[in-house]
Give the backbone structure.
Amino acid sequence: MQQIPLDPSCTLSLLPQFIDTKESDKLVRKWTKELNWVQSEIFIYGKKVAIPRLNAWYGDKAYAYSGTQFAAQPWTTELAELKARIEQTSNLEFNSVLINWYRDGQDSMGWHSDDEKCLGDAPQIASLSLGESRRFIFREKSDHSNKKEMLLSNGSLLLMLGETQRLWQHSLPKTRKSIGDRVNLTFRQIEHLL
């Protein structure tokens, strides 16, 4: 696993080929048809706006962010198996997963941190990327000019560890390239029920 330090208290661990392309492509085809996708809405400057992607929430506990509430949907067989594999690789425990479906290059994720109170003081996030490769950018909260960028490829696993969520933000920008589906799973540990 490749270690990518952001600063002394924040580390990224990247495993470029956590699952192989054949398995990844099969899961993307299956999940884009079968998971319970929604297009959430968030408030931006007091106006309700649909987010530029679809998402789904599976696991043991409910979740909320930016005014969006997610009821816990039960683990599918494939999701539970992936969770167990990631837990074994990372030595972390997870009880939920947020899944985002980026349908093309115009679907994106703005600057944010996964730092909701229900995730505890130092959330540890495991991010599994399936399908199309996309740029993933980090910026320091105290100095937005301090940025780190990487390409998350099909089947890659990124662990965001230490104080990363408290001190850094991340985003997945739009691209003008003609690209297909990307499904991203962010496994997390909800510390208390909402």
